[in-house]
Amino acid sequence: MAEIINLREFRKSRDRKAKSTKAARNRAISGRSKVETARDQDAAESAEAEIEGKKLDRAKPETKQPDDSE
Predict the structure, then answer these.
(1) pLDDT tens for residues 34-56?
(2) Which pLDDT score, from 0 to 100, does residue 61 have?
(3) Whose CA is closest to 22, among 14, 10, 11?
């Protein structure tokens, strides 16, 4: 026979768990100094710049149209 569970209690426990996970993440982010935050921001920006620099330019090269004004 299946175990009977109370869905309301299940939802509440699931929500509590999600809140505690989010709170732990926020504590880790907010508990850092300005130097640490700036260092991580600089690292993210340099990584983004490196990726942008390695992308191929997919634009079609401009071709000159012959002048009919001659």
Answers:
(1) 898 899 999 999 999 999 888 88
(2) 64
(3) 14
pLDDT at 25: 92
Q: Which two tokens stand for residue 68?
A: 């009919």
Residue 47 to residue 43: CA distance in whole angstroms: 6
pTM: 0.41
Cα distance between residue 18 and residue 12, in whole Å:
10
Residues in the chain: 70
C-alpha to C-alpha distance for 18 and 43, rounded to whole angstroms: 29
CA R_g for the chain: 28
b/e 3-37 (16+ beta carbons within 10 angstroms → b) = eeeeeeeeeeeeeeeeeeeeeeeeeeeeeeeeeee
